[in-house]
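Progress note, sequence design subtask.
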């Protein structure tokens, strides 16, 4: 009968590890409305998280400087060409005039390094624009949609966290079974 502890302890430990991690993950998202003084992390701090996410995106991922670097000389020349073709005027048919206009536009929009002119980008895209867009989009999300987005983005990692609790509980239960009382 003493050998049963080698089965029971790991199974109980595994169940406890699974359940506690499952509950911990669920408490990130639920309850959506405050109940008994408890509310999920995302519903409670959605606006704060949106503001932080916006700041992080603006500081490390997408900002006016990054956008400026992505608009290079070739893209600008292609855009000018498309613009001139779309807004076709008889004067554009004169090759020297078309070439001169492209050169003038390019010199106005590109700096010496071949990147889009910083002053123009900063006039179009102010430094906080990207962060405000991200913040607004996150705040507009319904909590259920935000939960689905986070679960989709995290992929199998959330399940890994839950099942690793079960595995850890199993190992601890097995270790306890070997401890002689």
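Output:
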């Amino acid at each position: 009968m003493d050998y049963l502890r080698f089965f029971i302890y790991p199974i109980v430990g595994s169940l406890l590890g699974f359940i506690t991690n499952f509950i911990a993950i669920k408490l990130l998202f639920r309850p959506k409305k405050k109940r008994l003084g408890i509310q999920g992390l995302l519903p409670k701090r959605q606006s704060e998280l949106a503001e932080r996410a916006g700041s992080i995106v603006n500081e490390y991922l997408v900002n006016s400087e990054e956008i400026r670097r992505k608009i290079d000389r070739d893209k600008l020349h292609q855009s000018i060409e498309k613009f001139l073709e779309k807004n076709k005027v008889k004067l554009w048919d004169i090759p020297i005039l078309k070439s001169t206009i492209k050169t003038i536009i390019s010199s106005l929009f590109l700096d010496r390094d071949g990147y889009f002119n910083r002053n123009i980008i900063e006039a179009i895209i102010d430094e906080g624009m990207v962060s405000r867009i991200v913040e607004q989009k996150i705040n507009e999300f319904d909590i259920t949609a935000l939960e689905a987005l986070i679960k989709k983005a995290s992929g199998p990692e959330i399940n890994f966290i839950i099942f690793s609790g079960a595995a850890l509980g199993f190992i601890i239960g097995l270790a306890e079974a070997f401890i002689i009382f």
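The radius of gyration is 29 Å. Work on this subtask will continue into the next period as scheduled.
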